[in-house]
Backbone:
């Protein structure tokens, strides 16, 4: 079997149809995901509109520096993911593998920094619940900010964990020559998912970190 | 050219095995064949339907007497929650899309399977998992919030298994999303040569519109239930006003899903009825493009009317007026469909077989349900009948009188294709009539009850309402018979029914050109659409006289 032969599943008539189907599938999935995050962003927007001052106070407690670093890391991972897709299509197996692993590694670093941030919030007693400590009278509203902050970043982190898993699996398949220049769709589809997760972070960073006041 | 011509002989020499050939459990549980997955869904939703119907039966029995002697108020709350959750998410939403849609969509498009067959099987397993969690929640005590899970009652005060139930519904949502995704991509990419968008069957159009709603609305429900469950488990405010939240936000998010969900339930029914009307009038549908675009218009407008569930919440009067207007606007594409179906009958060669009886029943009941929907979309009248039996009667006319009638009609129509056998026609006709009578006897009195002011969700009521409640319960038992009979004779027909042949109805479409039951890969050679859709020959003189 030639190394670059594409794999055609039997219910498709040709490889072009199969490729278009994969692309259409991931775009519809992303459309669904947008509505998933959309509901959260709507809830956040409603409360931010109602409690602008309290939300600004809450946002000021977040670590803008770490958030900024994480944004840069995720952007860079988007670049390596794109390059991995290109390298794969060019048939450069070594580069593909290195770029994929770099992408996964950057994702893990992002998650590590996120955990560090969560820990920081926890020690500052900003985690909502009985331990939440805010001296002012507007405590419930500020707590609401942190409820939404943890849910939104938490669900994003879940998506990123899935993404890292997918990229590692893709890298393993590429290592075993089951993804290559002739059979590139799985990598491209994973790439689209990865970029979507990046893009969600852009919105979350702007909403949660930037729209509050800075100290 | 008269009746559809077969391109090939299906008997003798190397006929490919039908999709039902293999009998092992493994061959069913690991199948990626869309036809088998459709049947897996059929068996599953029958179970959920039976449980939900039993809950309804106990409620109807309890309402025979004004004091509600059979069950206590709390049990009654759990019964209507069970009925609502199971009927909405585990019967109505998956009924036509996941059973008939799964079975028919690739056949109608001339494809060998759905775009993502493994994902299709996965969606059934997700459905089973969600259903198992919901059943477990019912067994350990049930939930008393109603299927709407309104906060803060659900998130703070209810002492029942709300979070578990929400988890089951949440998981089930992914099954809906995957099915919708599969249908959209299949319709875009797997159409046979010559199958242009305006040669698509109307059932396919309605499935496409339904799938858009499934994919775009379901995630919002998933997120809303997640927030509600987190508020309950974590005891922090999202929707609870005591903790800074806004309960109205829950209602907005919930109905942003749940109103479009109503169209998830009725659009597939409209698709089935379009097929039945054409198939039994032997005529192309009147105004094909209008009917097709009406489905898309309903899907779009359906996203813009959720506020009509909130007229008596603290939503502003201005918002109420906008939502009222938009709700009236939905009536336009719905009416286009009803008028076009009726116009299709004109000068058609109509045969009143069982599926056609269901279709005609659908048109009448859907019209009644739709017209009373306009009453409810009117701000002043809604204040009077809000949360009364008028609302119950209205949406049961759409959901049961519309959707279930259409589903039953569709099941009878395609049963010969699914099983290769005919059901007993006379019994079928009788059942369709029994269902129609039973349905009207059950739900028409509820319009009157609601208009007179009987509120929904109470296990007891003032004595003057008893007559109507007794009528309704009597009707429900007739309706129950109407659902039990098909179950019996469909099973009977699998063994003893007359062999159907490829096209027992003389209908147009790819699914009628292949064998009954179809071979594993649907078609022996890939079909090509060479003519317009529903290209029935003009009525002969014989039929005109």
Residues:
């Amino acid at each position: 079997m030639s190394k670059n032969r594409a794999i055609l599943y039997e219910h498709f008539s040709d490889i072009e149809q199969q490729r278009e189907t994969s692309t259409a599938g991931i775009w519809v999935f992303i459309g669904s995901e947008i509505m998933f995050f959309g509901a959260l962003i709507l809830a956040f927007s409603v409360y931010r509109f109602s409690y602008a001052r309290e939300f600004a106070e809450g946002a000021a407690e977040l670590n803008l520096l770490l958030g900024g670093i994480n944004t840069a890391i995720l952007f860079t991972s988007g670049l390596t993911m794109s390059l991995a897709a290109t390298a794969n299509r060019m048939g450069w197996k070594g580069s593909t593998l290195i770029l994929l692993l770099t992408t996964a590694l950057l994702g893990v670093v992002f998650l590590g920094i996120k955990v560090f941030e969560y820990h920081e919030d926890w020690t500052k007693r900003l985690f909502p619940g009985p331990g939440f400590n805010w001296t002012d009278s507007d405590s419930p509203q500020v707590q609401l900010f942190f409820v939404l902050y943890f849910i939104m970043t938490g669900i994003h982190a879940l998506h990123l964990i899935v993404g890292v898993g997918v990229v590692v699996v893709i890298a393993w398949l590429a290592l075993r020559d089951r993804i290559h220049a002739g059979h590139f769709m799985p990598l491209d589809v994973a790439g689209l998912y990865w970029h979507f997760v990046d893009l969600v972070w852009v919105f979350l960073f702007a909403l949660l970190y930037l729209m509050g006041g800075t100290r | 050219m008269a009746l559809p011509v077969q391109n090939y002989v299906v008997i003798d020499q190397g006929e490919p095995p039908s999709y039902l050939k293999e009998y092992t459990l493994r061959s069913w549980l690991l199948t990626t064949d869309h036809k088998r997955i459709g049947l897996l869904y059929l068996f599953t939703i029958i179970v959920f339907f039976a449980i939900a119907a039993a809950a309804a039966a106990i409620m109807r029995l309890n309402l025979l007497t004004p004091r509600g002697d059979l069950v206590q108020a709390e049990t009654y709350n759990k019964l209507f929650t069970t009925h609502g959750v199971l009927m909405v998410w585990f019967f109505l939403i998956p009924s036509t899309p996941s059973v008939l849609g799964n079975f028919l969509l690739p056949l109608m498009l001339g494809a060998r399977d759905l775009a993502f067959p493994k994902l299709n099987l996965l969606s059934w397993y997700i459905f089973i998992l969600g259903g198992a969690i919901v059943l477990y929640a019912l067994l350990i005590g049930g939930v008393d919030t109603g299927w709407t899970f309104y906060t803060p009652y659900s998130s703070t005060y209810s002492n029942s298994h709300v979070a578990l139930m929400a988890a089951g519904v949440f998981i089930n949502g992914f099954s809906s999303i995957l099915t919708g995704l599969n249908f959209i991509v299949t319709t875009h990419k797997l159409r046979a040569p010559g199958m242009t968008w305006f040669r698509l069957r109307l059932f396919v159009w309605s499935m496409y519109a339904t799938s858009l709603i499934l994919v775009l609305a379901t995630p919002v429900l998933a997120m809303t239930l997640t927030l509600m469950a987190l508020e309950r488990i974590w005891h922090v405010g999202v929707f609870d006003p005591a903790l800074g939240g806004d309960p109205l936000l829950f209602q907005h998010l919930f109905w942003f899903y749940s109103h479009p969900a109503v169209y998830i339930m009725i659009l597939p029914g409209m698709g089935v009825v379009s097929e039945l009307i054409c198939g039994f009038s032997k005529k192309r549908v009147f105004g094909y493009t209008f009917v097709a675009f009406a489905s898309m218009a309903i899907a779009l407008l359906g996203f813009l009317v959720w506020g009509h569930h909130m007229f008596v919440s603290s939503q502003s009067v201005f918002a109420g007026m906008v939502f009222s207007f938009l709700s009236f606007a939905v009536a336009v594409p719905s009416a286009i469909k009803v008028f076009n179906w009726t116009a299709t009958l004109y000068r058609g060669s109509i045969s009143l077989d069982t599926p056609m009886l269901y279709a005609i029943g659908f048109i009448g009941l859907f019209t009644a349900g739709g017209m009373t929907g306009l009453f409810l979309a009117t701000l002043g009248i809604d204040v009077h009948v809000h949360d009364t039996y008028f609302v119950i009667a209205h949406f049961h006319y759409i959901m049961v009188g519309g959707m279930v009638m259409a589903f039953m009609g569709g099941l009878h129509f395609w049963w010969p294709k699914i099983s290769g056998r005919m059901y007993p026609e006379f019994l079928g006709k009788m059942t369709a009539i029994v269902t129609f009578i039973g349905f009207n006897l059950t739900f028409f009195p509820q319009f009157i009850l609601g208009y007179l002011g009987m509120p929904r969700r109470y296990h007891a009521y003032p004595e003057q309402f008893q007559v109507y409640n007794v009528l309704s319960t009597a009707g429900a038992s007739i309706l129950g018979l109407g659902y039990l009979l098909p179950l019996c004779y469909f099973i009977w027909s699998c063994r003893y029914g007359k062999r159907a042949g490829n096209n027992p109805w003389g209908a147009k479409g790819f699914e009628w050109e292949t064998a009954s039951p179809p071979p594993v890969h649907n078609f022996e050679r890939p079909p090509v659409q060479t003519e317009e859709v529903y290209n029935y020959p003009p009525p002969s003189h014989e039929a005109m006289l």
Observations:
- Residues 73-109 of chain B form the longest helix (37 residues).
- Chain B has 16 helices and no strands.
- Residues 8-13 of chain B have pLDDT under 50 and may be disordered.
